[in-house]
# Entry
Amino acid sequence: MKALLALLTLTLLPLGDLSAAQLLTYPRHSAGSNPEAYVVELLQLAIDHLPGQYQLQSSREPMSQSRAQYALEHADPHLQVMWAMTTREREASLLPVRIPIYKGLIGWRVNLLRATDAQRLSQVNTLNDLKPILFGQRHDWPDTPLLRANGLQVVTSPSYDSLFNMLAAKRFDAFPREVVTAWQEQARAVANGQALVVDEHVVLHYPTALYFFTSRQRPELAEDIRLGLEAAIADGSFAALFERHHGATLRQARLAERRVIELHNPDLPSATPFDRAELWYQP
# Structure
């Protein structure tokens, strides 16, 4: 009987720990497969370094970036964390966890093109060479005003998924994508019947970071995520996760062999931690 009671106690302990954990809900950005599985795994890794404190889950329905930001600004109890490219306005409205999720690679962009236009950027050498080209972006992404601030033409859509259809339908010419996700997105587009390729000649670069953000009313949550990420950096698990997800892609991207077009980021917050070299990827 004593042995049975001990076994029941051990069996019930994880349930008690789980019920005590706070729900940590993040916005699911699109229907179907998660295009940012790495970010979710990194967030899970951070809370794994805070055992028993949080239980991660996605929102029930997809949420646009602007809707997620609005929810956090108003301390919506159904959402606790989001991730997005940093801007001055966003850092004023939300609390940033200033550890760049993609080690700054969010600012290294290769372009998706129609397969019939695979050589479209082969003669591009300067920013001026890009000015006749129509670029596609979602209307609420910070990249949209950034590209326009550099004199580039941008066509927008309220839907992430529709941008691939718009490119295939010749509504615009090029779709700048994070180097760490471009080939994954291109493969998904081809599987959906869209004849798209990743340009092999040019990479756009601007200084920026993708962070986790919380409500300004939850400073303790932002600090916990920061501590979890710092612990993952210290024990090497952050670097191992990054290499597992992105190492092969970065080798495929050959950034050092591409023509780099530097863009100015007029909305870069002054507190961006460029002084911590270990947080940034250098091609």
About this structure: Confidence is low (pLDDT under 50) at residues 1-18. The chain has two domains: 16-104+208-279, 108-205. The chain is about 35% helix and 20% strand. The first helix runs from residue 2 to 20.
